[in-house]
Amino acid sequence: MILNEDKALKVAEFLLQIKAIKLKPNDPFTWASGIKSPIYCDNRVTLSYPQIRTYIRQGYSECVIDHFGKPDVIAGVATGGIAQGALVAQELGIPFIYVRSEAKSHGMTNQIEGHFEPGQKVVVIEDLISTGGSSLKAVEALREAGLDVRGLIAIFTYGFELAHSNFANAECPYITLTDYDVMLNKALSSNLISEEELESLRQWKVNPQEWKK
């Protein structure tokens, strides 16, 4: 689910404008998994642009209130969700914590950093969803710590069916400010891609493992 169509288009426009999203269907990137990808997304770039950073912060905050109600705490997913989550917590005037991918091997051996109480309602902030694996590991850690996870919000998702299944199986609702399909429509209308490239980009989403083989 996206926030709404008009705002989703605006976020997509921003991401393309500052090259937080790069599209190279004819010269694809290679992910760590080995998958060939026509898209590279780095939403941390948004933090360098105050106007865009503000728009995204306000979008996140609107999503939190409209879909989940005001929580007791905001949790950012390390690393991309930390800065975004802190901005949202500041906007809403509530505490902030963040979740590491795994517990530290030294010191207090924390996986969750910051103060919280079991039973508190929390909304999780992420920057990007691919399969949902790392996001849901954070959700699991928060639940194991006794927190009531209301849902998760991210800036962007590729829209893979696997992600939908993973979030459904974890019983964790999620919302994004924009998504792959909205971004492709914006890229086409802005003449950043051709109709032929659009078709190739759509095929990648359906079967990334087999695309370009």
Describe it.
This protein has 213 residues and is an alpha/beta fold. The chain has one domain: Rossmann fold (3-Layer(aba) Sandwich), CATH 3.40.50. 41% of the residues lie in helices and 21% in strands. The strands form three sheets. Strands 5, 6, 7, 8, 9, 10 and 11 form a seven-stranded mixed sheet that branches. It has a two-stranded antiparallel sheet with strand order 1-4. Helix 1 packs across helix 6 and helix 2 crosses helix 3. It is globular and about 55 Å long. The chain starts with a helix and ends in a 7-residue tail after the last helix. The model has no long low-confidence stretch (mean pLDDT 94).
Shape: globular
Q: What do the pLDDT scores average to?
A: 94
Number of strands: 11
Number of helical segments with 4 or more residues = 7
Cα end-to-end separation: 31 Å
Please estimate the helix content.
Answer: 40-55%
CATH topology: Rossmann fold
CATH top level label: Alpha Beta
Provide the number of structural domains: 1
Give the oligomer, counting copies of the same chain as homo and different chains as hetero: single chain
* Structural Rg: 17 Å
Strand content: 15-25%
CATH architecture name: 3-Layer(aba) Sandwich
Poorly predicted regions = none
